[in-house]
Amino acid sequence: MKLLPQPTAQEIEHLDKLKLVSKTHLPPLKQVSVEANCTKYTNMGDPQKIHPVPDVKGRPTAPLVPNGSSKFSERVDPVQHDYAPFRRTIPPTVAKPPKKRSCCCKCICWTISLLILLLVVIATAAGTLYLVFQPKVPEYSVDRLKISDLQLNLDMSLYAKFDVKITAYNPNDKIGIFYEKGSHLSVWYSNTKLCQGLLPKFYQGHRNRTILNVTLTGQTQYGSTLMAALQEQQQTGRIPLDLKVDVPVSIKLGKLKLRKVRIFGRCMLVVDSLSANNKISIKASSCKFRLKL
């Protein structure tokens, strides 16, 4: 077995130069490996031989810290400890618990709800009753007016006595009317009350027509002035009079009797004379009535 020839001095010198170049000119942090060079010796008479070259150690990487500069750990006090950087912590937001309603607020809400419910029930009942019974306001008319007495007293007061015939008609098919106590009927001339009276207490059935004869009496101060005005108006043949009615009534729905209500009415009359015990003609009559609960 033949030994391979040793590298010459020239080859070793060449390798040393390569090591020096690799240490000074290659960029830092980049490690380059140098492959082993093999030298071929060929001879016309000998077979081809390959001589191994010793491996060149990898070039060390450039130092991370330049020469002449001290490390950070050397400049810092060895007793000093490293602390994490300060970070401001934001406190977590806590959701506020819902406010509890006070007892007073709950009572008010319940009261309002009950009132609304009560109003709805009353309105529904009233609407149902109206559709079933179809209530109508009674009708009244003045058929006759007679002056029994109209004279001046010694104290200059005016005494008047009227007899009035009134017709009351109930147009309802399912509603009866009770005329209660406390009614009031009066005759006026130019905002001065001449006489007054009361309507009788009675019951009026369905579609019933009732004739009422009412006597009205009264006494008025400053009768001389009033009498002179009436006589002057009588010469024209048209004397305006107002007949005012205030009657408390109770409504009967079937067998049910409801609470009292009041009927207010006003009849504007025009007569031709105010002579006592004479026939008086009613030239015009206009009546209006309303129901007050």
UniProtKB/TrEMBL annotation:
InterPro entries for the chain: LEA_2, NDR1-like
Compartments where found: Membrane
Alphabetized UniProt keyword annotations: Membrane, Transmembrane, Transmembrane helix
GO biological process terms held by the UniProt record: defense response to other organism
Protein topology in the membrane: Single-pass membrane protein
Pfam family, one: LEA_2
Annotated TM spans: 110-133
Gene Ontology CC, one term: plasma membrane
Domain named Late embryogenesis abundant protein LEA-2 subgroup: residues: 166-263
PANTHER family: LATE EMBRYOGENESIS ABUNDANT (LEA) HYDROXYPROLINE-RICH GLYCOPROTEIN FAMILY (PTHR31234), NDR1_HIN1-LIKE PROTEIN 6 (PTHR31234:SF72)
Listed name of the protein: Late embryogenesis abundant protein LEA-2 subgroup domain-containing protein
Organism: Escallonia herrerae
